[in-house]
Amino acid sequence: MVAVDELSLVFSALADPTRRAILERLAHGDATVNQLAEPFEMSQQAVSKHLKVLEHARLISRSRTAQSRPCALDTVRLDAAVGWIVRHRQIWADRHDRLDEHLAALRKAE
Question: Which Pfam families match (predicted)?
Fold first, then answer.
């Protein structure tokens, strides 16, 4: 089970639309910082800061290939976050179903 602190890092990283867009790009394959910065109207330094947040949350990894440092999506933490969401969604769905049953019983009793 993933610790709550790790999930907090993941959800915090995912809270920013630029970082989500970077992850979407990396879902199609590895990319360099320059490639990731291309669609954004921000400096390469600003994109690098976003990458550091994603790397700290362990959503991406960087390798060294000759003179470049390509970034790659690391789905392990995303999978853990999805698992947490699915579990809690099920809890709320079960509670909603029980509430519906309770309300139906109340209406029937009237």
Answer: HTH_20
- 65 exposure class (CB count in 10 Å sphere: 0-12, 13-18, 19+): exposed
Task: Give the count of beta carbons closer than 10 Å to the beta carbon of residue 46.
Answer: 13
Residues 30-73: pLDDT tens digits?
A: 999 999 999 999 988 999 999 999 999 999 999 887 777 899 99
Cβ contacts of 63 within 8 Å, gap of 6 or more: 69, 70, 72
Name residue 53's amino acid: V
Exposure on the CB side of residue 60, measured as CA atoms within 13 A = 31
Instruction: Label residue 3 by pLDDT band (50, 70, 90).
Output: low
Fold of the CATH domain 4-109: Arc Repressor Mutant, subunit A (1.10.10)
Domain ranges of the chain: 4-109
Task: State the residue for tokens 């390509």.
Answer: 70
96: left (phi over 0), alpha (psi -120 to 50) or beta: alpha
